[in-house]
Every structure is written in structure tokens, then in C-alpha cells.
Design the sequence.
């Protein structure tokens, strides 16, 4: 494994040098997009001097009244200022939108910059690298005390200004933060980032499988998530408006899609298309499905659940990591669904947990216990819970 990692790092370094011209082209296009965007404006309030009855001067600023005024304004600002969590989600939304644009630009350039990490089914592209740099740098700039954990192992280096997103979703800021999260501090939050979920499918042209995932956890629990689908609508053809962003917060709900359920009594299983094995197939069959859908990307599979295309996501194998499941879990839980390991145990998203979900993944919008009860005993024994 150490030799493979050393070889991967060497290939990645050589790849980085080779792809610099393509990166410059993409950055130039990103800058053009930014230059065309309307500038953000801020409102300012002017403090005017007033006559102070305690002052020997006819007109001046009374120190006491000025202090009281500043305190009053500060109190109003604090009272009206959105909670840290909502500001983070609003920023993550804008960052995810920019990420989707980067993913599309890399594909359009034709220079994917593919590198094998641990094998042919574990790939990294230029889009993975640029998007992770963009997300981590953007969120770190606005929330310097955050803990951010990304999938890709990237060298520490400066991030081009063109990749940084400073905006936010004003619609999200208008929503009230659930009371249990209203006083959270940014240093209490952990962000899990998968810059390109479904990388293999991205390289194969299965673009509807691809998502960008930004999950937010507090106290080990996934409490908010943002999922961008860069190529949503791509199958419509030329002229289609590409991309959409879904988001959700526990206690508030989930947005950006129409919640639907599969027809009553239908058991439609969505599972992996490229990482299957006997444990996976045995577990899927034990569910007695009416239909099985094999697609890429954990984010894509959760979207299938909340849009009524599947009733359960079953993956009875190690492979998924915390950055694959944090954002999807938060959105699924926000609409009443459930995501656990194959035993029915919840995942933890603390900063110091191991990244691998060793006991697989089982997610449902409804009837979670039924699917848990159908998991074969041999599979449970083969996949001990963390």
C-alpha cells in the first residue's frame, strides 16, 4: 500500500505539471464568469453627531449616548444576524454552485487529467483537484475556525483567487435556524467534502451520476448538507439549463427538489454499478426487490430515494467514506428518511473518526427497519460494525 501511495503521489506531481496549461484556460474562463456577475452591495448606517445636554459645547457627541448607540446597534445586529450554521449553509450553497461550474468547464476542456489512486476504479481528475481547492479555500476564508476534511490528498499550496467563492444564498439566509443549532460556533462544526462523487462515471460520460457533496456535522451528527448536480438536465440536449443544488438542515427541511415516494408496496433497490461483490448481491436479493437500479455515486443514490425512483440504497461492503455519506445523510434525515450502516447503527462524523464506512451503507426514505431485518446473518458477520 505504501508503494502504491508513493507511486500515486509521483504520478500526481507529474500530472500537475502537465495540466497547468489546461488549468490556466479554465481559470481564465472562471474569471470571465466572475467578472460578468453583479457585484454585491452592503447597506451602511451613518451615525450623526447630536447635541449633548451634558456637553459645554452647543453641538457635539455625548460619549455616554454614543456608547449607548453603538451598544444598541450591536445588539440589533446580533439579534438580526443569521446563525453561524445558516451562514455556513448559505456559503456552501454558493460554493457548490461554483464547483458545478468548474466540473462542467473541465469536461468541456477535454483535459480531464485522470490519475489512478489505488486502482482503475479509484480515480482522480483535474475537476476533483480544482473543486476541492475551491471549496476548502472558499469556506476557510469565510469561516477560518472550521474543520474541513476533503477526500483528495492535495499538497499545501496557495489557491488562485479565481477559485474562491465569496458569495452566499440570500434565500437560505432568510430562513430561521432551528433552535437547537442557533448558538453553534464555527469551531464546533466539521465539514466533509467530496469534490466529485462519481468520478469514474464522470470519466465515462455518465454525467447524471455526478455530484458535489458538502456535509456539515456537529457533535458527530450530520446536521446539514448541500448537493450540487453539475449536469442535471444534460440529457435534454443543447440549450438546456444545466445543474441544480439541493440542500437541507435537520429540523428545517430540505429544498431544491420535489419530495416523492415510490408507489406503495414497491421495493426498488439502488446499488453500486462498479464496486459490487457477493456480499452486495446477496444482500440486495435478500430484500426481494421488484427492481434493481445500478448507478454510481452515493449522492446520486440518495437523490433517487427522495425523488421516488428507489425505496432503498443498499451497499453491503466497505468502500463508502464519511465524505460520501455526510451531506446525503443530512438531506435524507431532514425529510424523515434514514441512513445507517448495514446493522442499523448511525455513523459518526467527528473530526477524528476513521474515514471508511466499514460496515456498508443502508439508506431508506421509509420502512428502514424492514430492510435492516432482511440483511442476511452471514453478511452481518462479515461486516462487523465500527
Sequence:
Amino acid at each position: 500500500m505504501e508503494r502504491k501511495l508513493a507511486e500515486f503521489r509521483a504520478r500526481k506531481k507529474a500530472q500537475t505539471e502537465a495540466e497547468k496549461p489546461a488549468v490556466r484556460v479554465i481559470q481564465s474562463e472562471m474569471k470571465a464568469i466572475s467578472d460578468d456577475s453583479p457585484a454585491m452591495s452592503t447597506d451602511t448606517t451613518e451615525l450623526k453627531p447630536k447635541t449633548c445636554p451634558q456637553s459645554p459645547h452647543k453641538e457635539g457627541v455625548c460619549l455616554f449616548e454614543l456608547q449607548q448607540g453603538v451598544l444598541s446597534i450591536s445588539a440589533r445586529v446580533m439579534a438580526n444576524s443569521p446563525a453561524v450554521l445558516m451562514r455556513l449553509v448559505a456559503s456552501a450553497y454558493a460554493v457548490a454552485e461554483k464547483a458545478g461550474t468548474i466540473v462542467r468547464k473541465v469536461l468541456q476542456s477535454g483535459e480531464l487529467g485522470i490519475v489512478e489512486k489505488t486502482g482503475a476504479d479509484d480515480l482522480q481528475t483535474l475537476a476533483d483537484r480544482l473543486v476541492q481547492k475551491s471549496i476548502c479555500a472558499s469556506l476557510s476564508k469565510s469561516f477560518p475556525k472550521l474543520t474541513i476534511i476533503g477526500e483528495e490528498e492535495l499538497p499545501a499550496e496557495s489557491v488562485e483567487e479565481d477559485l474562491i467563492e465569496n458569495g452566499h444564498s440570500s434565500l437560505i439566509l432568510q430562513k430561521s435556524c432551528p433552535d437547537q443549532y442557533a448558538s453553534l460556533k464555527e469551531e464546533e462544526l466539521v465539514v466533509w467534502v467530496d469534490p466529485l462523487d462519481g468520478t469514474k462515471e464522470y470519466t465515462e460520460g455518465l454525467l447524471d451520476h455526478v455530484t458535489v457533496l458538502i456535509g456539515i456535522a456537529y457533535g458527530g451528527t450530520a446536521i446539514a448538507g448541500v448537493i450540487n448536480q453539475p449536469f442535471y438536465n444534460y440529457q435534454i440536449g443543447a440549450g438546456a439549463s444545466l445543474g441544480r443544488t439541493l440542500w437541507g438542515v435537520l429540523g428545517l427541511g430540505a429544498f431544491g427538489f420535489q419530495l416523492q415516494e415510490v408507489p406503495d408496496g414497491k421495493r426498488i433497490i439502488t446499488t453500486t454499478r462498479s464496486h459490487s461483490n457477493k456480499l452486495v448481491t446477496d444482500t440486495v436479493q435478500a430484500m426481494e426487490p421488484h427492481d434493481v437500479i445500478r448507478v454510481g455515486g452515493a449522492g446520486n443514490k440518495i437523490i433517487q430515494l427522495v425523488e421516488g425512483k428507489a425505496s432503498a440504497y443498499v451497499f453491503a461492503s466497505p468502500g463508502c467514506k464519511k465524505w460520501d455519506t455526510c451531506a446525503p445523510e443530512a438531506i435524507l434525515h431532514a425529510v424523515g428518511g434514514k441512513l445507517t450502516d448495514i446493522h442499523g447503527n448511525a455513523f459518526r462524523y467527528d473530526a477524528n473518526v476513521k474515514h471508511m464506512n466499514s460496515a456498508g451503507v443502508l439508506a431508506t426514505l421509509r420502512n428502514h427497519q424492514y430492510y435492516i431485518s432482511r440483511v442476511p446473518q452471514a453478511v452481518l458477520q462479515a461486516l462487523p460494525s465500527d
